[in-house]
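Listing 4. Sequential folding, example run.
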Amino acid sequence: MERTGRKFVSPIEPLALKWLSLIEFSDEESNRTKLRAQAIRLSNSGYSINQISQICLTTQETVSKWIDGWEKYQFDSLIDKPRPGRTPLIPGEKHDEVIDIVKKNPKQLKSAITEIEEVFGEKISVKTLKRIIKKNCVGAGDGNLSKASAMRMSSGKRKKGSKF
């Protein structure tokens, strides 16, 4: 393909192209990182920003930013930057402990909250606890499940009349 009058990445060395291919088809990388690697490879192959944006299902402006990032930072531009957000009161790796506390008496979340505060030294709300339960319990993805039924389903007991 001819490269005239449009923005393309500077020619990329064969070894870097091989790394881009490995990133693009990796199971460990995020989908956004793989998509950026694909866009850079396509630009190197002579595809226009318009064609790349259609292939990647994104805007031409986004593809242009990816190319600019590649020119400036190379492989570092493919990785997502940290996103802002509140750090969780109880980290994800401690959620199993929280679930175990709640399973002791799933109908009394306030007493579970008191015990969680003692164990973790963090005060959490009932809403936060429900969010942790919903995120970590099998079958709790259904918004209609009560916390008690979510606990029963996660412990292997089926709710009467349940199709699961």
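-- end of first protein; second protein begins --
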Amino acid sequence: MDKQWWNQLRFDLAAAFVFYTCLPIPFATTLEFCGVSRYVALVGLVIGGVLGLLDTGLNFVGIPMLTRSVLVIISWIALTGGLHLDGAMDTADGLAVQDPQKRLQVMADSATGAFGAMAAIALLVLKTAALSEISSDRWFALMAACGWGRWGQQLAIARYSYLKPTGKGAFHKAALHPRDILLALLLLLGLSSFRILLHNDVMSSVMIAISGSAIAFLTGAWFNHKLGGHTGDTYGAVVEWTEALLLCVLTALQH
């Protein structure tokens, strides 16, 4: 039984990384993706860790802060295949429509409109500017942003109705259990606590945990208020806006 459980966990984790990233995973074509949302926060921490390693390497070879930040943001998009950014763009296009009945139809259109492009520019500028202002523990900032952003996605999946029963994101809600959200929250609180071990800085660790959870909750609630529920696109928007806003908060805490 233990071996069977471990094999299932291994395949589920592999499926989550295939679904949410562009990392090369063997036997990808034989995986099932119905339960990937249970592990999305862990995937986020790994993405942040990979970006942190990249940033450390770029710093080691002498790349200046701003250039390094731009390269990290570009790698961020590449590592996720632009999955969440695309959702944020589609969501912005949908919210720009005055008629609520047509919003989902606009969001389903693969063509990017003016508001989607503006949302993408705003997100990328915010992330680049904020990351450029963080001079120490940048790996921690990246892991925190990626982790809390995806916890916000989990929260939105669990709390709010899914607006397109036949959409590609419908299976996320069916598979997610409240314990998955709690385990992800404990994992992220553990990340914040790790900062106490590094710097004995209890106050900033508490503030990061409060800010991350609050932003994750409020972004999901705001999109639900505007649309009356969520779709796969708004899940991506929650991730992107939580990441960007939390990075901004982290600049304030550092300075």
